[in-house]
Amino acid sequence: MFNQLKNYYAILAGKKRAKFLKANLDELIEEVREIMESCELCERKCKVNRLKGEIGHCKVPNKMLISSEFLHFGEEPFFVPSHTIFFMGCTMHCQFCQNYAISQWLESGYEIFPEILALKIKERKTQGSKNVNFVGGEPTPYLLFILQTLKELKNLKVNLPIIWNSNFYMSEKTMNILNQIIDVFLPDFKYGNNRCAKDISLVENYFDIISRNHLLAKGEIVIRHLILPNHIKCCSFPILEWISNNLGKKCIVNLMDQYYPCYNVLKKEKFMSLRRKITLKEFEEVKKRAEELNLIYIC
After folding, report:
1. For 3-298, which CATH class?
2. What strand order describes the sheet that includes 184-187?
3. Where are the domains of the chain?
């Protein structure tokens, strides 16, 4: 497992510099500004001018809104303590979302400025953080402000690995930028086909986009797969098989068994099949398939 995260550990040991410290952040900031004039940071490609305050599908305004930030001890064991920063809003609408109050704007969040967030990141490092973990909701709509924060962090000479904890429904333009600043990609890979994704998370062409972005990612990858009840053969198996065929042992797969029914699955009859936790049998079936495919996995 060390080989899959060797660059991450080298940054922690001070032997390597985080990617953002070597990137031309001013150039990337201008590139993102241009994208946001007709926004296509994610694959929704709403084409609204977010620099003028126009609101797209994600409902993110032209400012940085977060729900919380703290040292997280519940992430993957090799990442903790992780300085997680939870951004408001999301580019998807998962009907079972366990963070729906954040992702679907039941909360309003609070504004934070790049220079303040950078100081907070520096402070969290003195408290023991091993990385900066941009999550949500979804961080993608906030890429401009994240780059501005990294610029401030660079001025503060803080060398920390950057984790992109995302639904991975980003555009190719965004992926090209992320590849210049992100050390570890921590994507969700929920569905093994487009139909389930459209029914449950209201997104188009999910599998095509998510699999494409995994192939585009130039960094270390830890893939999270949240196992859903009654979606083993249609989603879990195809995802694991795709990973085996395309990434093999270049990544780590986190098989997550913590699904529980909440949000809209408790309200809408069409989601009756999701109104329970996964069974031990389902979990063991997924683990067995991962072993058959010789994947490196944790759970």
Report:
1. alpha beta
2. 110-111, 65-72, 82-87, 132-135, 162-166, 184-187, 220-226, 251-256, 297-298
3. 3-298
